[in-house]
Amino acid sequence: MSRRRGAGGIERILEKLEGNVKAGNYYDAFQMYKSVYNRKIGEGNPAEGLRLLVAGCQLFLAHKQMENGTELALLLGDHLVTHRTDPGTALNEQLVKVLYRAW
């Protein structure tokens, strides 16, 4: 049951962050992405942290916020190295999409 609440929690967070970006509150959204990412890592949930970073990169780049998107992408790269994440096919496809949007 707590897993369901956690999954719903990340969905609510993503919706709130998307709302902030759409409203032009880029700085607040960027700080929230980093804060929530660090909280997820602290909770021992690197998969949700990774999901959050990918979503943040995609959203910022879609809104032409290259600096914020790039900073999250750098954090994403650091995450993959630090947590020795083996990027599977699905993650590789997401990362290619993120990088493609950046250019």
Brief summary:
This protein has 103 residues and is mostly helical. Helix content is 83%, strand content 0%.
**Main sheet, how many strands, which sense, barrel?**
none
How many separate helices?
5
Helix/strand class? mainly alpha
Ranges where pLDDT stays below 50 over 5 or more residues in a row are: 1-5
**Helical percent range?**
over 70%
- Overall mean pLDDT score? 82
Order of helices and strands: HHHHH
Strand content: under 5%
Give a verbal description of the structure.
- The protein has five helices and no strands.
- It is globular.
- The protein is mainly alpha-helical and 103 residues long.
- The longest helix has 21 residues.
- It is 83% helix and 0% strand.
Features:
mainly alpha, disordered N terminus
SSE topology:
Blueprint: H1 2-22, H2 26-42, H3 46-62, H4 66-82, H5 89-102
